[in-house]
Structures are given as C-alpha cells and as structure tokens.
Amino acid sequence: MKVGDRHYRSIWLSSDGWAVEIIDQIHLPHALIVARLENLGDAAVAIETMQVRGAPLIGATAAYGLALAARNDPSDLALGGAYDTLLATRPTAVNLRWALDDVMGIVHQLPPERRAEAAYRRAAEICDEDVAINDAIGEHGFTLIRDAWQAKGQTGRVNVLTHCNAGWLATVDWGTALAPIYKAFNAGIPIHVWADETRPRNQGASLTAWELSQHGVPHAVIVDNAGGHLMQHGMVDLCITGTDRTTATGDVCNKIGTYLKALAAKDNGVPFYVALPSPTIDWTLRDGVREIPIEEREASEVTRIAGRAEDGRILSVDLTPMASPAANFAFDVTPARLVTALITERGVCDPSEGGLQALYPERASSGSS
Ligand code: MRU
After folding, report:
1. Hey, where are the domains in the chain?
2. Ligand 1 contact, 170 CB (< 6 A)
3. 199 lines ligand 1 (CB under 6 A)
4. For site-directed labelling of 97, which of 60, 218, 234, 365 has its Cα 20 to 30 A away?
C-alpha cells in the first residue's frame, strides 16, 4: 500500500541482496523508520519487541530470520537452534510455526552449502504468497461490504468496526481485515471505519488509523469500550477483524477485546466477520478457548503509555499507581458460534469444521497441520 506517493510492503530484501528491511512499527504513527535486520538475533528481537507484528508478518519475518541464520551457519545444529529461538518469540500466532516448518522442511533436504539460498527464496515466496492471499481475501470480503451497501439502499455510508490492526502493516501487503475495506473504498463505496484503539499497545489508534489516513479512508478512532454503544444505536453495519490462530472448528483467537465485540455484535444483530489467510488455521486444534496458548506480555504495557508531546518529543508516562500490579493478556478467543462467517482466500465460509473443510478439502481427511 502507499505511504504518500511511494508503495511499501512491510518487509523486503535490502538492495544489498541479503539483509532484510522492515518498517519499524514501534515508531508509528509519529515516524516512519526503516530498520535493518542482519542476523537471527535482529529478527528474533524484531518479532518479540513488536517492531513487526500481526500474524502473517510475524511468519514472514521468521522465514527471513531462518535465511539470515543459514547465511551465518547452515549446519543442522545452528538451524535447529535458530528455529527454537524464533519459535519462542511469540506464542499465539500460528503463522510463526507454519512459516518456520515450511522453510525448515525445504532446507533440511539440502546440503548445507545450498541452504541459505533456498531459505531466502522460500522466504520471498512466502511474502509474495501472503500478498496474493490478502488480495483474494479483499475481493471476497468486498462482496460482503457491497451487499451491506446495497441492503442500505445505497444511502449514507457503510460503517465497519475493526479491532487492533489487521491491515497491510500486519501482513506483507493489503492486510486481512482491512483488505476488503481498501477494495470497497477503491470501488467508490462510501465506507467509514470505526477503529478500536486497542489497549494496551494501541495498534488501532496508532497503526490502523495511520494506514487508513495514508489511503484516505474515512475513519474515527474510538475507545475500546465504545463499540457496544455504537452497535446499539445502529452505527455499525458490520464488524471485520483478523485472527492469529483459527481452529479447525472455526474458533478464532485475536487481539484481546475481540471477544467482547463479537458478543456485542451478536446481541445487536450486527454481522461479525473474521478475515483469515489459510496459514492462520491450526488444523490440529478443535477447542480454541482451551487449546490456544494466550500470550501474556509485560505489565508495563498496561501501566505506562507512550505518545508525542507538544514539543515533538516521544514520552512514556505512568498511568497507574506505582504499587498496583497489572495483568496483560494479549489475546482472547471468540467461539465460532459468535462469528457470522470467515473470509478466506478461497471464499467466504461458515465458521465451522464443515465450512472450512468445504473450502480446504485437502485437509478434510488428514486433520493434521
Ligand atoms: O499483538 P499483535 O499486534 O501482533 O496482534 C495482531 C492481531 O491481533 C491481528 O488482528 C492479527 O494478527 C491478524 S493480522 C492480519
């Protein structure tokens, strides 16, 4: 997607042909800073500290992390260690394990001297595949927004609520939940986005709002607790969120607070859609609430907040009494019964085992990852 006149992806290979460059998301929306990853440690830190984040982008970065590791030492021992290091960076998004297994499956069959090149090639393919997947999700999701617009008699605007950031910054390009929104906007449908701020890290307020601003999509940032009120007053036509891990039965795990939005949507008859690329499906799991590991992050993300002061300095300040502990659960699970439909690269389906298997019949008999 574009920033000003320039097209960006969220991750790309440097012009030197080996280092990896990313948009460092820690500095957004206040500064667009490109960071350079030169080795396994850089890639692991980028994922862990959320310089890159969002399930698909975490997977793409991990794939390049293995390529950087193989460039340094392509032995079985070193690559096994690199795999473990990268896998430990973030526990919830299954794209991480998917991408690591994919690259490792290829390089393990090769002699050490050919591994780095093969890992770089596969990492680049994973990035290109992600863009194509999200483009297709955008097309399928677009039809839902167009239908909502037609159902309103093509009057007013279509109001879409989204949570966290599932836009191009969370993927390699396009985004998952935001891809249909960009397609609808590009097609001339008058669309307006309610962007949940998404405490504690504020991915909605800082990243989704920035992306939408760059593309010119009308939007407003709302506090996390506003969605229910808006839905009660007919101010939300549909919700679209992303997911970090989807079970074979259609339960979705996404940024903390997604579940509460789904409950409010159900109570108010507002369609609740979840956009997902197939690498986000964990075919080994059936019960999202019990089986999906939920990341717990540092309490300081809750007790402190950073922002730009009037003089331009970026400041971090305390929000809570120094003596108060905090808990920071990063994700929650929305059971399939609260989801209206899943938007995948192969089409829109029922959030159920049957719905997913109808689109991915090759998974129907295996039931494995
Ligand atoms: O903690 P984050 O910022 O990595 O969480 C991201 C999300 O929850 C996204 O909604 C999810 O990864 C889907 S991204 C296409």
Report:
1. 2-129, 137-366
2. yes
3. no
4. 365
Are 37 and 46 a contacting pair, CB within 8 Å? yes
Whether the CB-CB separation of 102 and 119 falls below 8 Å is answered with: no
Ligand 1 lined by 256 (C-beta under 6 Å): no
- The 8-class DSSP code of residue 343 comes to E
Query: What is the token pair recorded at 182?
Result: 């960009």
Whether residue 56 has its Cβ less than 6 Å from ligand 1: yes
Handedness of CA 38, 83, 71, 56 (dihedral sign): negative
Tens of pLDDT along 226-256?
Answer: 999 999 999 999 999 999 999 999 999 999 9
Residue nearest to atom 6 of ligand 1 (CA): 54
- Closest ligand 1 atom to the C-alpha of 331? 8
CATH level 2 (architecture), domain 2-129: Up-down Bundle (1.20)
Separation CA 21–CA 264 (nearest Å): 40
CB 66 within 8 A of CB 103: yes
Give CA–CA dist 154/99, Å, rounded: 42
pLDDT tens profile 153-193: 999 999 999 999 999 999 999 999 999 999 999 999 999 99
What is the average per-residue pLDDT within 51-75? 98
User: How far is 291 from 275, CA to CA, in rounded Å?
Assistant: 21
Q: What is the pLDDT of residue 366?
A: 54
Q: Output the DSSP codes for 324-365.
A: -----B-EEEE-GGG-SEEEETTEEE-SSHHHHHHH-GGGTT
Tokens of 268: 């108010």
Same fold, 2-129 and 137-366: no
Per the structure block, which two tokens stand in for 163? 């949570």
Candidates 244, 251, 282, 332; catalytic one: 244
Atom of ligand 1 nearest to the CA of 275: 15
Task: List the structure tokens of 45.
Answer: 């830190």
The answer to whether residue 318 is catalytic is no
